Amino acid sequence: MEPFVRKDESYLTIESWMKQFPGLVAGITTKIGGVSKGDFETLNLGFHVDDEVNHVYLNREKVADLLNFPLDQWVGAEQIHDIGLKRVEKKDCGKGSVSYEQSFKGTDGFYTNEEGILLTLVFADCVPLFFIAPNAKMIGAAHAGWKGTVSQISKKMVAAFGTDGINPKDIHVVIGPSICEKCYIVDNRVVKLVENILEDVDRKPYNLISDGQFSLDLRQLNRLILLKAGIPDEQISMSNLCTSCDQELFFSHRRDQGKTGRMLSFIGWKEISNH
Ligand SMILES: [Zn+2]
């Protein structure tokens, strides 16, 4: 079953998690309903892509209103396709929400067990990963393109939760909308790196389609890595939505040849204890 449900023209949520875990807000935006122009039409949420800064700000304000999660409670990252994870706390709130300069440097994932912090990352084809260990109230978000995926950022998040005493068996993961295997063609160099981490896996997540060209299922690759890290199969759900196939709904770096906007993934606990 598709874990992402459309709530509005501008965003989808992980409906089952939000029902199961009261106070949780988790999902991803679409490209619809913003004020950006041209290549960034219309709901571009990435500051780093040469869009007008004020348009990105207005788009972010809109999403903050829709989610009822104010911008001064967001955290954002300067994503570099590596595996740097940052544990964030209340004092970090607001960093990277309204200015790229203030975002967390060299960071491709966040985690926290505190309320009133929205973990945000931006995407246009790469795989958004959402983590929750409900008993420990720990949540996480990661950005996994091919580099982050083969460097096993997903496994690193499981290990980070582990330092807090969380067992992989208590972690649930959702693999979000991203580029599908039909749209994602890579060369030998990438497939070699995939082979290195999947020696003991029979069903490889790639297929040779022509000389030196492979179609790669990045979502399935992340799933295989998470299984190897000890997450139970039934606690991993995977979206079927493709950012490249669905031109109406999503920005796609590949399809739009690099000139495009960014969607925003989000996960956070609303501040409820004081109410
Ligand atoms: Zn596709």
How would you describe what is shown here?
It is a single chain. With 275 residues, this protein is α+β, with helices and mostly antiparallel strands. The protein has one domain (4-177, 230-269): CNF1/YfiH-like putative cysteine hydrolases (4-Layer Sandwich). It is built from six helices and 15 strands. Strands 1-2-3-15-7-4 form a six-stranded mixed beta sheet. Strands 5-6-9-8-10-14 form a six-stranded mixed beta sheet. A hairpin with a 4-residue loop joins strand 8 and strand 9. 46% of the residues are buried. Zinc ion is lined by residues 180, 182-183, 242, 244-245. The site of zinc ion has 6 residues, from loops.
How large is the share of residues in beta strands? 25-35%
Classify the secondary structure makeup into a structural class: alpha+beta
Can you write the helix and strand succession as a string? Answer: EEHEHEEEEEEHHEEHEEHEE
Mean pLDDT: 96
Whole-number radius of gyration?
18 Å
Tally of contiguous helical segments:
6
CATH C-level label: Alpha Beta
Instruction: Flag low-confidence runs.
Output: none
Looking at the overall shape, the CATH architecture is 4-Layer Sandwich
As for the CATH topology, it is CNF1/YfiH-like putative cysteine hydrolases
Q: Separation of termini?
A: 34 Å
Biggest β-sheet description: 6 strands, mixed
- The order of strands across the largest sheet is 1-2-3-15-7-4
Give helix % range: 10-25%
Tally of separate domains: 1
The count of DSSP E runs of length 2 or more, i.e. the number of strands, is 15
